[in-house]
Amino acid sequence: MNTISAQELKRRGIAAVDEVIDKGDVHVIRNNQLQYVVLSEARYQELMADAQEVYLARVRTALEDVKAGRVEKFASAEELLKALDADEPA
Q1: Domain 2-38 in this protein, CATH class
Q2: Which residues, listed in sequence order, are joined to residue 36 by a DSSP beta bridge?
Q3: Residue closest to 5 by CA, chosen among 39, 43, 33, 47
Q4: Per-residue confidence (pLDDT) for residue 89, from 0 to 100
């Protein structure tokens, strides 16, 4: 894991990130805890594309469930919540 301290980032500026970003995402440590992650633009776009793919896959699956009749309809949100509570393991 690439890490730099917030103090180092404050002292050296973005140059501190530039030196390690080629090795992967950079975690910024503040008050001895991981607080932030700096990503390259390419990595950010990759994550956004992956998230979009997952979202579309979930929508496709939901639509297939509707077409196949694998859905339940509830008259109210209260009924839905009761059904969800009943499905939870004790």
Answers
A1: alpha beta
A2: 28
A3: 33
A4: 65
